[in-house]
Amino acid sequence: MPTARQVSWAKTRTFVVAVAALAILAVLVYLLTGGTLLEPKSALLLYVPDATGLSTASLVRVNGVDVGKIRSISLSGSGQPNRVVRLTLTVERQYLPSVPSDAFAQISSDTAIGDKFVDIDTTQSKSATPVQAGSELIFKPQQDLLKTLDIPQFTQQLRSLEAFLDDLEQGRNSAGQFLLSDALYVKIQQELIDFERQIKRVASRDNPVGSILYTDQLYRQIREPLLRLDQRLAAIQASEGQPGKLLQDDAQYVQLRDMLANLRRPIDTIRTKPFLASDRQFNDWSRELASLIHGVDGFNLNPLMSSSEMYDNLTGLAAQYRDMVHAFRQDPRKFLRIKMF
User: Fold this and answer.
1) CA 75 to CA 47: how far, in whole Å?
2) pLDDT digits (tens, 9 = 90+) for 235-282
3) Kindly report the CA angle at 62 between 83 and 114, in degrees rounded to 5?
4) What pLDDT digit, counting tens, does each position of 86-108 carry?
5) What is the pTM of this model?
6) Please, which residues bridge with residue 118 across strands?
7) Beta strand 116-121 pairing with 59-62
8) Is the torsion defined by CA of 200, 204, 209, 212 positive or negative?
């Protein structure tokens, strides 16, 4: 005989299972209804001549978008041919602002034998006022296919289709040749074989591309410089070599900085000199140089430098002295004079 605890535990499990089943059922119903079960809805009225092909499960669409379903179908009791049947449409309220008050509705289907639905067309609407809940939509009947069909054009299309089928059957076009013979298939197969052969040739080990695919030569060419770079960076990080010591110890940096500072001091000293600080000394030098140039120009304008007369006189006098010295050396006695008292 089960104890009271076991009975209580069984009731608890039954309750939990029931709650879980209800939750799953609610989720299924919510998903089967497209997630719109709890959405607020509004009703619209539509009067049509007949409801052939329609049911309470038929969809209501606005420009091809599902917005609701037909809730009920009933006779209106009206004697007008276009208002025999009354349809009550259930539309989600969020879509009502997208439907103008002058929009019209038609009974349409996706295909000639497909399910029918109510299609609300707003592409030709001009009113900016949206339709109100409970109002009536304007019904616009579909045009008769036989009235809008161009019989001569349709006949011409049938003849073109018949000619195409005859060419296909007789093999007078590419599709017919493909169906009646295997020439096109053999050609395609041969092209595929040639393409496969080229792929194999490219992927062979003798080809540069194939050598890249089958060997690690390119990988090693890329890997080795990276390894060397990594080793150099590791050596620098480990304070090996001049760059590593420079990064780890700032003694050389301080020395270089002091050297640059010492080099800058004489430069600053030179910059403070009067010669560089002002142009006074330069102007004095310029005036002295101008005076020297003026003196040279004056010396050039001297008659001694501008005429050769004095040069010729000096030349003649030097020639006389030379002849006299020559004569004295040959016979000095004729230059002696004895004076008796």
Assistant:
1) 9
2) 777 777 776 666 666 777 777 778 888 877 777 777 676 666 667 777
3) 75
4) 999 988 888 888 889 888 898 88
5) 0.36
6) 60, 107
7) parallel
8) positive
